[in-house]
TrEMBL record:
It is found in: Carboxysome. This is Putative carboxysome peptide A. PROSITE patterns: BMV. It comes from Prochlorococcus marinus str. GP2. SUPFAM superfamilies: EutN/CcmL-like.
Amino acid sequence: MLICKVLKPLVSTNRIPGFEHKHLQVVLDGSSNKVAVDAVGCKPGDWVICVGSSAAREAAGSKSYPSDLTIVGIIDHWDPENS
């Protein structure tokens, strides 16, 4: 699992059929930006827990879902300066 910060929503209207219409978020993982499926309804500025690989696909809804990063939780309190 990863701790990431949500930067902003990502809108993508033209998608492959299996991608459905799940919300996407741009998240900051260390110094790199990544796109994650938002399974919990987070907002910019939230610190979140992300899962990758097969756990990301299952968390997004099925083992065949085309995701390698899914947000599975919003962290209530996180101080990155003291972690």
